[in-house]
Amino acid sequence: VDDMDQMPWSQELLDWLASDFIENNYNFKKLLRTILTSKAYRLTPSLLDAPDHLIKKDFVFNGPVLRRLTAEQFVDAFTTNLYPFYSGVHYTQKEPDGDPKWIWHREIEYDRTVLPKPGARWFRHTFDLESLDQIRDAQFIISVDSSFTLYLNEQEIVQGSDWRQVVKKSIPLAVLKESNCLAIYAQNDGIIANPAGILFTLEISYPDYTQCIVSDKGWVSSDSKPDADWTTLEYVDSTWAQVQSFGSTGYWGYLTDFRFGDGTYEPARAALVKKDQFMLTLGRPTRENVTTKRSEEATLLQAMTLSNNELLSDNIRRSAEKWKTIDPNQARQNIENLFYHLLGRLPTKKEEQVLLNEIEAKERSIEAWEDIIWSVVMLPEFHLI
Amino acid sequence: MEKDPGRRKFLQTVGSAGIAALGASISSLPFLSSCSKSGLESKADHVILLWMAGGMCHTETFDPKRYTPFEKGMPSKKVISTFPAKPTVLDGLAFSEGLEAIGQVMDRGTIIRSYRAADLGFILHTRHQYHWHTCYEPPQSVQPPHIGAWIAKELGPVNAVMPPFIDIGQRMTVGEGEELKAFHSAGFLGTEFGPFAIPDPSQGLESVSPPKGMDLQRFESRNKLYRNLIDQSPFADYGSSYHQESLERSMERSYQLLKSPEVAAFNLDLEPSQSYEKYNTGRFGLGCLLARRLIENGARFISVTTEYEPFLGWDTHENGHTRLAKMKQLIDRPVAQLILDLEERGLLDRTLVILASEFSRDMLMEGRPEENVKNQVEVPDFVESLKYYGMHRHFTDGCSILMWGGGIKKGHIHGQTAEERPFKAITEPVVIDQIHQTIYHQLGLDPETNYVIEGRPFYSTPDGKGKPILDILA
């Protein structure tokens, strides 16, 4: 039976809440406030001896039951306190500036499009500008899975090797001409065919309007090394093929950082990202079935994923880069902050000593901080709320 | 745990409050009352499923018909088999050209030629794959487990450090990834019994190693740090809890596995190169090699797939003949070598190997004779080029399944299909719940294995039905 079909543990309390809800004009905020500020809710959480503890005949209510973080909650907690776990969402109302599409060289086998093989590809796109002297500025944003070099009118503008670090730059106006040629050299890493893509928006600002040049179906690409002049406007690319477009989200989602301006943007909430192997393993259900309950049992597969998942390890490294320090006083401060953010308390003297020893033993390297962050995030105390 | 007495008796003895209470669970653990072992003698300890994803055409592989070579302009309806038949080691059994190696090991196994896939309306691969792997027709209100998950749950791994259900060869980033995820799952049995995925067998070792860039020494020191923190934790003073223990225990198990000697089984580089080359036809071949190594080290259920990617692999909507030649080359030597290697190591008798696909194909018919469904591929009246020479439609009424080991008869042919179009099963038809129950039968599992989920018993096959195919059992 569904959670909703169960007998309530206290019919009287449920009835009271229901009538209070009605009396307060069905106000959800008031209902939440009533529950959250109640003495019952604020009791010390109680631990379960066994999964069926709650329905035993001799059960006594001692306080809210400790629950395990769901997959999405774990990811969001990580995002909020350490590093954005995901870079792109699949469901959003705020789409990236310019509405670019993810593109890559179209790979065909037996008349069918397939996932791209690892290796280098070359991309070109030409465009015209109207009134050069009216241009106020030119900015672009680019993200490429997995690495790239961007040229404009034969000049190398920028390189990148991490699709999660969106690159934003201005183009010196002197580089722009009436007819322009964008060229990108890009690589797909990996061993077997895997997703690859380029996302690009160039915004040219005039006094009253802006012109956008984005990555889309109009670009062309090649998989064989072209002649040296391939970045020039005059290069003949008639043998190059039209790129394949993966749409606005492709495999990566709408990158939350793919916007002009320096503002900080809302990180990607786990529930808005398509479920991946990590979240699936941690118990996020597939959408084919209505799942009203998730098992809170920790499984071997989950533990293995938490131990060696590539995305998780990568995110831990990125967060360690922010937290690490070689200054011992700063280290102490950072450890306190880490505990405060992740566990809601300060470390005990003993805990602090364990971690400081770790930092010394690993010579204040980033590995020490990675292992510290991993260990804290794997504590039952972090997973049980 | 008590043996569940079966649905009707269950409803009689438990009152409605009891049923409601049973539905209230934090974790479904205690309510998954397992059936006690059936008392059936088991003939197999391991299962390897060789999954030919995409609809492997039986008349182009294991059930060849009259050979009609390519002639430009030939009428489509005259195209029967695009490959000639070649003899196998068994008298009276011929396979399509390109499967000679597998033909040589048919004296160790059985071929079922009369498998009939279900009627699921307009033919979509992932729906039929879902049905094949879970035995339930989608959509379901409860998420049914993959057959591998049932087996993992009932039997666990042979070697405790191994994940019991391993899935090799399928990436989830390819088309229809969402639909694939729907049945690559332990469903309501819980993620403990879900598939351990290894999309690329040559990188299998990575999935059971410490994270990239971390050597064993650092991995051990990290684990020590973790244990230290747990020991020092003031949280521990509040008393232990089920959740805490569960988390700590799983992390400990994982740590043990990731540094156990068994992980060497995942490392294909350790295979002698002569043997490695016999399997090296591509990812599928290497997947077979990995499966063998894992079975040797105590894995329970392994699925090796040629991988479902829409319109690729066996899923020929055009270029059928050309691509089938390649697919047969991909599977022939590795599958045969797998059987021979298992036999050489004395494992074949207790390892049930199955080769199957979700349905078959035909030039003209879509669906089955009594129930045609909407065509998805335009078949021209005349075959002007090789692009149109092949089986490009989906045919559900006659498919081939091969089984070796695990107590299956040696050198046996079960059922037959018609010699003229439509090439449907005409004797001893077999359906999916029979396949599942045959596998469970050989593993010694109760045919009425079930769990109470959301207040009702959910059986390993719908209503616990499906007579094992006794005729193919040794």
Cα-to-Cα separation, first versus last residue of chain A: 26 Å
- Report the radius of gyration of chain A as a whole number of Å: 27 Å
Q: What level of helicity do the residues of chain A show?
A: 25-40%
Report the β-strand fraction of chain B as a percent range.
15-25%
Using CB atoms under 8 Å apart, which protein chain pair has the greatest interface? A-B, 78 and 88 residues
Q: Give the end-to-end Cα distance of chain B, rounded to a whole number of Å.
A: 33 Å
Could you name the CATH class of chain B?
Alpha Beta
List low-pLDDT spans of chain B: 1-36
Biggest beta sheet summary of chain A: 6 strands, antiparallel
CATH homologous superfamily designation of chain B = Alkaline Phosphatase, subunit A
Q: Give the neighbour order of strands across the main sheet of chain A.
A: 8-7-10-5-13-14
* Total count of strands of chain B: 20
Largest sheet of chain B: 8 strands, mixed
| Fraction of residues in H or I helices of chain B | 25-40%
Instruction: Name the structural class of chain B.
Output: alpha/beta
Q: What are the secondary-structure elements of chain A, in order, as H or E?
A: HHHEEEEEEEEEEEEEEEEHHHHHHH
Mean pLDDT of chain B: 88
- Counting DSSP H or I runs of 4 or more residues, the number of helices of chain A is 10
Which term fits the overall shape of chain B?
globular
